[in-house]
Structure formats: structure tokens, C-alpha cells
Amino acid sequence: MTLAGKPLICLAGPTASGKSAIAQMLAEHLPVEIINVDSATIYRGMDIGTAKPTACEQQAVRHHLLDILDPSQSYSAAQFRQDALTCASDILARGKLPLLVGGTMLYFKVLRDGIDDLPGAEPEIRAQIAQEASARGWPALHAELAKIDTITAQRLAPNDSQRIGRALEIYRASGQPMSSLIGHKVLDPVAIRLISLEPENRQALHTRIEARFDQMLALGLVDEVKRLHERGDLNPTLPSIRCVGYRQIWDYLDGRYALAQAREQGIAATRHLAKRQLTWLRSMPDRRIVNCLADNASEQVLALVRQATQAD
Length: 312
Prior knowledge:
- The chain has two domains: 8-116 and 186-311, P-loop containing nucleotide triphosphate hydrolases (Rossmann fold), CATH 3.40.50.300; 123-183, Histone, subunit A (Orthogonal Bundle).
- It contains 14 helices and eight strands.
- It has helices at 19-29, 55-60, 77-93, 105-113, 123-136, 138-148, 150-154, 161-174, 178-181, 202-219, 221-229, 246-253, 259-282, 297-311; strands at residues 8-12, 32-37, 63-64, 97-102, 115-116, 185-187, 192-198, 288-291.
- The strands form two sheets. The chain has a six-stranded parallel beta sheet, with helices on both faces. A two-stranded antiparallel ribbon has the order 5-6.
- α5 (123-136) packs across α6 (138-148).
- It is globular and about 55 Å long.
- The relative contact order is 0.17.
């Protein structure tokens, strides 16, 4: 499936690889509009910890799928796919180039591979699972999952709360293990051209991650999370509060960590996220790789985007 016969141009990379800055540079040379491929910037009031494009950046180039939900709400990969394709069609109709930019690899995956025919969200079941996890811990629920869906459990870490919860939710809603439903596509794949920002030096990326987390703290991340914490209707089981950085500062506000410990935990969680992102990217042999640490990374990406659009 393509839009107007064209594959979608995607710019992906791990956190702190410079995606946003390069996307802004592309907008100075090409008639692009940016579709954000990010499961955190969709939430209103979560700006600092998500490194959301600033007001000036949003004025310079039109962004889509920012600030579309309250943090109390959930957003599925299927919803992203529908919204992203709608945005892309509208952008093309205006004579512009849709540029999908972000680091939520599941969202890129549902575009590239389509979506399996899985049950939709079941809020009551999800809430019950969250209560059980709070009482028993996620490793116990992972062990429960292993009894009913060994295949899925084997590929998940015992503390992968989001995926364990979803697998149990699917089983309880349908009576079938998630692994038996994978492969039955309800929505077809979309053609994409993926440009991947990857570091040649992993330690240098780790240094960037630490510096960026400290910058977020300096800009007021604790106060941002405190405002969410004080609302009273949010909790750590929600996808918004599970976002890297937010969960660790939330735990600090709950008294589980000192701020210095929350900082260390936040940096470690961000590095782990980057590792997962890179693992996913390396599973795509047709991606075009640009060293995000190179001095001319922006110019390389610009050349690849021009090449992709001219080829089409």
C-alpha cells in the first residue's frame, strides 16, 4: 500500500540521536510537514521530559500528532496508524512532503508490517491486571503468562509491564494466546523508506543521553511531573506516566527514591530504551544508515531524502 503511489519517508533513531534537529533542518530545504512518531509527545502537558518541539520549532514547520491526548488517555498503535496515514494523505494533497520522525518503533512497525487481528483494548480487564501487578508484581504475572502463552512470555522480560499486561489482556478477552493470533493481518503493510540515525560509538550516545536528562532537570522536569502528580487522576500504570523519565520522577515524588537516585534511574532507563530502539532498527536490513554522531549527519540525511523523493 502506498499513498499516491509513493512510499512514506521515515526518519528514525534512538533517543538523543538528533532526530528533531535534523527534521527541522530538512524543513529549511524541503516543503515538508512532520508527522511525529512518538508515544509520549502525543500527551498535553508533557513537554520537557519528551523533548517536544518548542513553540518556535512548531511555528517554523507544521507538526502533526502533538498534544492530541490528555495523559489520562491511552493511544494504540492502530490509532496511530490511522491518524498518521490520514495526516500523510492531507499533507500530500497540499503539495507537501510528509516526513515521519520519531523513535517509537512499534509505530513504524505497524506501518511497515500492517496490524495483526488482535482484540481491542478492554479497560476493565486492563485495570484488573494493573491491580494484580500492584499486589503481586510483574514477574508473577509474567510467570502466569508463561503458563498460557509460552511463546509470548519467552520473548518478554519479567518486568516488561506494558507487553505482559497486553498479552494477558488479549488472553482474558479472547480466550486465545496472543501468539496464536499473530500473523492474521487486518490492515495491510505500507511502503516506507527508512533513514536510520545510529551512533558508531555507543558510549558517545550514552553521554548525550546523560547530558539531555540533566538538561531536562534544569528546565524543570520535576515541576512538570509534579503538576501531573498533583492532579489526582493519574497513576504509574498509565502509558503516559510509564514514559521514561516521568516514571522515575513520579517515584521520587512518591518518596521511593531521592532525586539523585531518580536521576540515575532515569538515565539508565533511557539508555535501555535506546538499546531496544537500536535492536529494532538493526532488524531492518533495508534501512539507510547515517552515523548520528558525524559532523555532516544532517547533510547526509538531506541527500537521502532528496534521492528518495526523486526516485519516486
